[in-house]
Structure formats: structure tokens, C-alpha cells
Input
Amino acid sequence: MVWKPHVTVAAIIERKNRFLLVEEETPRGLQFNQPAGHFEENEDLITAVKREVLEETAWQFEPEHLVSIQLWRRNPKFPTFVRICFSGHCSDFNPDQQLDAGIVATHWLTRNEIAAARHRLRSPLVLISVDEYLSGQRYPLSLLKSFLDTDDD
Output
């Protein structure tokens, strides 16, 4: 068997000192997470994070920076994740859009509200990412390079 980490994207979206989080059904109950998910075959990471934010929140997301690339595993019996965390802004909310299965609500929470809900965070990366963002950690999107040949020839 070949070991492979799960590669995911996540978005830090801040507006008026509040951060956009999703409340989602998980095997451990309702938990908070950044809009996030796995990227799909034949898409680049920027396309993936835009899609995930739209599917989970009904907001159009425009990434502006990389915040961090995180390696995480809950414990040795759980999968390993490589999480690419972006920051950016949202525009064009569609209140009629149905959210992804498992997403029960979206919330704009302060950093302190997120910290107070630590026991309900999907992973420690939720608060870590917010703190990285608040510390000014930003890297240019030009660090990402995609070389996806979609031609079958």
C-alpha cells in the first residue's frame, strides 16, 4: 500500500474583525472550520479554494495571499493532511444557493469567539490559521506553480 497524505485547501476570510467559518456535521458532532476541502483532479489550488468557499458558504472568494502550508495528523491512527491556507476577500453572496452536504450554517466570529469554541473546532489548525493571519503572515500567490497538462495527446 502506498501512503499518501490528503491535500486540502482552506480560506481565511476576515471582515470587520470577524472570520467566516462553517459549522459542519462531522463524526465528532457539529464543529467549526474554515471553508475548506480537498482539491479535485485537474484543478489548481487557487481554483480549488475558490470552489470550496463557494460550495460551503455561497460567497465568491478571491484569494490574495498564502498564509501557510500546514502538515497535520490528529494521531498515528488518523490520516495525514497537507493543508494550503489562503487569505482573501469575499464578494457576491448568493443567499439562495444551497450549501454543501454537511454544512449546517456559516458564521462570522471574532478571534476570541473562535478561541472560546476551541472544543468545537474541526482541528487546531482553525485557530492556528487565524493567529497566523493576524500576526501578518502573508506570502504571494506567485509561489504556487501549476503545470497541468489537460491534453490527452
About this structure: The mean pLDDT is 94. The longest strand covers residues 59-73. The chain has one domain: 6-143. The domain at 6-143 is CATH 3.90.79.10 (Nucleoside Triphosphate Pyrophosphohydrolase).
